Amino acid sequence: MTRQILKASAMVMLLVGLVLASAVASARAQNSRIIAAADVPFSFIVGDKQLPAGKYVVVPTTSGADALLISSRDAQAAAIRLSSGLERGSGQTTSKLVFHRYGQRYFLAEVWGGDRNGRQLMKCKQERAIERELAAMSSKNDLALNTYERVEVLALAR
User: Fold this and answer.
1) Secondary structure of residue 81 in the 3-state scheme
2) What is the H or E stretch that residue 148 is in?
3) Residue 19 above 90 pLDDT?
4) Cα 43 from Cα 105, distance rounded (Å)
5) Minimum mean pLDDT among 5-14, 22-31, 55-64, 99-108: which range?
6) What is the rounded end-to-end Cα distance, in angstroms, of the chain?
7) DSSP one-letter code for 145
8) Nearest by Cα to 82 from 52, 49, 47, 55
């Protein structure tokens, strides 16, 4: 009899634990805040993924926003990338996505919401290789200086 009571108590505790865990996960998903939403007119690279032109939202995947989910609104394309915090000067509150352009390749570099805090995405291997190549070229000629551009796409802060 005591064994059945212990077994029933363990099942109730397990059930309560599962209910609490699912409630926390659900609350966290509902509280995930969109940092920015933008219509990007060109294809771009995030990490090792090429994302097509289109409407995108940027959402933190962790409480500290160390990882960002960049996802198309139709959920057909998505990438996750680690990021670090940025802070801009006073008076600047434009929400935007910042890209580094090398020739015809665009790399998502920064995400800014409507406040003074932004996120800088870690550079991927491909972008770092291009930077090394350009650094080697810049010592030989001025062509390398014309192949890099910072491109900003205005976004809606949410």
Assistant:
1) strand
2) strand 148-154
3) no
4) 8
5) 22-31
6) 57
7) G
8) 47
